[in-house]
Specification:
Radius of gyration: 17 Å
Largest sheet: 2 strands, antiparallel
Helix content: 10-25%
Shape: elongated
Strand content: 5-15%
Structural class: alpha+beta
Distance between the termini: 32 Å
Order of helices and strands: EEHH
């Protein structure tokens, strides 16, 4: 399996002594996107549209 490399964060500054960071297209877990979807199409695909069920 090939895994793409993480993209370095262009806003990171090693002069302040913080560890390096990376960027990605995914949102953080606490926004609920894994449960509710992060696009309209994904959200629509997760819903049963019956009795408010996912």
């Amino acid at each position: 399996m090939r895994l793409p490399r993480a993209v370095p964060d262009p806003t990171w500054n090693d002069a302040d002594g913080t560890p390096p960071t990376w960027v990605n297209q995914d949102t953080h877990w606490w926004d609920g996107s894994q449960l509710y979807g992060d696009t309209r199409g994904m959200a629509d695909g997760l819903r049963a549209r019956e009795d408010g069920k996912l």
